[in-house]
Specification:
Low-confidence stretches: 359-365
Distance between the termini: 72 Å
Mean pLDDT: 82
Largest sheet: 5 strands, antiparallel
Helix content: 40-55%
């Protein structure tokens, strides 16, 4: 294949990845090969590196780069941002040879793993984030030549358009997901970053600002007790734990029935690099006319069947002794199940559970 034909083929691959996110790892591998390198990376950038897509060569390495603090110590990103250059930059555009030879990240991470020299570019996207695309070469091959930079600069407009397309498609998917919840009668929003609203349906927007407020840092709720639990649920450790689906009770007011907020983490895929979507926030109103059935409670708060039966009994003002007699277990077992219910609902007192399920306002303490 001639050089021009190969270049046209790469352009086709770029636009394919813009529409099919799963194609980015293979494209990054092709870009690396085209410049005599060994693969590449695509980072979502918001106050530092946040997430990454990489060619297959770095499946084991990039998680270490992000997890072990190398990304935070890497001086490349802040220097590249400061240059504000609409093209690809090499290591020597950003650092002197002496700096490269003595920098901790270069010496103890990049060179150690055969990433001696690189070329990269930063592409702003409308969501307020940026995309960093980097291709690498082994140190034995020497610095990235200027003719390679010229080739990459020729591809950059196509990479930018593909990134914009991926970002827009990601937004449309998020909007469709929120709208699907509206069909079910549920307010819902897709959250990005640390919990800011990315897309929301009309039912959710109708709860702003009476229940929700979309702050710069994250979405908040006017219920102080619920907001503390929401902040915890949106924390990076909670979102990373695949076992946790947070369900947060919101007390009733004179104008609003009690509700339950569900925080469902969005699992990683290439499209998340372009949207930074991290969680789906779903609101389930609780009918104040009747205590929900055990089956409904089980679904609302991720309870076991036994815990759901105890929760419903407490909501109907039954005593622990009465529940023990009715279920044929001892009193301590019911107390243990009640303790688990309070933990899963984020409540601290039995009366708060009664108040929530009976549709009355309560105050945590």
């Amino acid at each position: 294949m001639s050089d021009s034909a190969h270049f046209e083929s790469l352009i086709d691959r770029v636009y394919e990845a813009g529409l099919i996110p799963s194609q980015w790892p293979a494209l990054l591998g092709d870009l690396g090969a085209a410049v005599g390198g060994n693969g590449g990376f695509l980072f979502g950038v918001r106050d530092g590196y946040t997430r990454a897509v990489n060619s297959v060569e770095y499946d084991q390495l990039i998680p270490v780069f992000l997890r072990d603090g190398w990304s935070e110590r890497d001086p490349n990103l802040p220097r590249a941002i400061a240059r504000n250059h609409a093209g690809f930059l090499t290591d020597h555009d950003l650092f002197s040879e002496e700096e490269i030879a003595t920098n901790d990240v270069y010496c103890n991470f990049y060179r150690k793993h055969g990433i001696g020299y690189r070329a990269g570019t930063i592409i702003p996207i409308p969501s307020g984030d940026s995309i960093a695309i980097v291709v690498s070469r082994h140190q034995d091959r020497g610095p990235v030549p200027r003719e390679v930079v010229a080739l990459l600069d020729g591809l950059r407009p196509h990479l930018a358009r593909a990134s914009l397309a991926a970002n827009r498609l990601g937004f449309e998917r998020a909007r469709a997901q929120a709208d699907a919840l509206q069909v079910l009668g549920l307010p819902g929003a897709v959250l990005r970053g640390r919990g800011r609203v990315f897309a929301a349906n009309g039912l959710f927007e109708a709860l702003i600002p009476s229940l929700f407020r979309d702050r710069i840092e994250r979405v908040t709720t006017t219920d102080v007790t619920a907001d503390a639990l929401l902040a915890e649920a949106l924390g990076p450790m909670s979102l990373a734990d695949r076992r946790i689906v947070k369900s947060i009770p919101v007390a009733a007011t004179r104008d609003r029935v009690p509700m339950v907020l569900h925080v469902l983490p969005v699992r990683g895929s290439a499209r998340d690099i372009f949207t930074q979507a991290t969680a789906l926030l779903v609101v389930t109103p609780v009918d104040r006319a009747a205590v929900p059935t055990a089956e409904v409670l089980q679904g609302l708060f991720d309870l076991t069947p036994a815990e759901a039966r105890v929760a419903r009994g407490i909501g109907q003002a039954e005593t622990v002794d009465a529940l023990a007699d009715a279920t044929g277990v001892n009193r301590e077992t019911v107390r243990s199940q009640l303790k688990a219910v309070l933990s899963k609902t984020g409540l601290s007192r039995q009366q708060e559970l009664v108040s929530l399920l009976a549709g009355k306002a309560f105050h945590g303490g």
